[in-house]
Amino acid sequence: MNSNEQTFSPRGPIIVFSALIFLTIATVMLSGLDIGNIGALIIAMSVASVKAGLVLYFFMHLNHEPLIFKLFVALAFVTLATLFLLTFSDYAFRGIA
Amino acid sequence: MSEQAVTVEAFHHHDEEGTRLGFWLFLFTELLLFGAFFIVYGVYRSAHLNDFKIAAESLNTGIGTTNTIILLASSLTVVLSLNAMRAGRVKLAKTMLLITMALGTTFLIIKGFEWNAKFAHDLYLQTSGAIAAGKGSPLLTPGPEMLPNGQVLFYGLYFIMTGTHALHIIIGAVWMGIVYYWIAKGSINPENVGVLERCALYWHLVDVIWIFLFPLYYLVA
């Protein structure tokens, strides 16, 4: 991915940036809806995940990395998700949360 | 590749891909650091949902949105800086890096004003020493004026999480300053972009963390 022959083109990053701004404005507007706590949380976290995915895949150049990089990153997020799931399921049955 | 070039390359062996993978591993540890914060936030939020909602009302969504857009723009400029450097456009790469640092600084200044407004309302982080000396905030220390526990937790988490994030912005901006100096000196150049690349990766990760902090503090709470 370090070929020096490549020419500079801001087009791709600007398209990704536009999508990120659009999603930011969308999530702010959607937060005004009265859809209850869980619904609002799901929407906000879903939009945030899509935004994070765009940054990781395009800005952090995962799209140009070998498969092993993508697997590593996926594994890191699966690990984090497992920690969340285990902790929250624990608290859910303790009657304090 | 000439015979001589092969020999020199073998002599100064440097595995750029391995270095990058190693840097991603470091980024995963950052993810776990903030992940722990998010777990604490999640547990306390579900335990004190109403208090979290009331306390979050005091945060300004407009300021949060502005800072989100500033950070996203800085992610764009740092990726443009890296792409420009790879394409041999050194001057453009330097300009984009300067803009990124300026955006990062703007983020911090806005964050500073936001924190200051909270300080003015007696909301701040306090040490146990200050509390013992009677200098704690009346709103956050035990007493007749103390806010409900859930709100005290919210403000504590707000300062710790946005503060740790701001610390990462400071580290990233200082690192960019060093990278800028190395570009000016010529040790980072179109043939050797590794350090700029890792600096950009770090900056993007800090942006990714903010992408999750923003809705949790400014939108859904």
Descriptive key words:
heterodimer, A: mainly alpha, 2 domains, 3 helices, B: mainly alpha, Four Helix Bundle (Hemerythrin (Met), subunit A), 8 helices, elongated
Characterization of this structure:
The complex is a heterodimer of chains A (97) and B (221). Chain A is mainly alpha-helical. In chain A, helix 1 (11-30) packs antiparallel against helix 2 (36-59). Chain A has helices at residues 11-30, 36-59, 67-92. Chain A folds into two domains: 1-65; 66-97. Chain A is flat, with a radius of gyration of 18 Å. With 221 residues, chain B is mainly α. Chain B is built from eight helices and no strands. Chain B has helices spanning 3-11, 16-47, 49-56, 61-86, 90-120, 128-132, 149-185, 194-219. The radius of gyration of chain B is 22 Å and the shape is elongated. The mean pLDDT of chain B is 92. The chains are: A mainly alpha (97), B mainly alpha (221). At the A-B interface, helix 1, helix 2 and helix 3 of A face helix 2, helix 4 and helix 8 of B.
Number of helices of chain A: 3
**Rg over C-alpha atoms of chain A, rounded to the nearest angstrom:** 18 Å
Q: What number of domains of chain B?
A: 1
What is the mean pLDDT of chain A? 90
Please report the two chains with the greatest interface, counting residues with C-beta closer than 8 angstroms to the partner's C-beta. A-B, 49 and 50 residues
In CATH terms, what is the architecture of chain B?
Answer: Up-down Bundle
> Helix share of residues of chain A?
over 70%
Number of strands of chain A: 0
What pattern of helices and strands is seen along the backbone of chain B? HHHHHHHH
Beta-strand proportion of chain B = under 5%
Helix/sheet category of chain B? mainly alpha
First and last CA, distance of chain B: 59 Å
Give the SSE string of chain A: HHH
- Enumerate how many helices of chain B there are, as a single number: 8
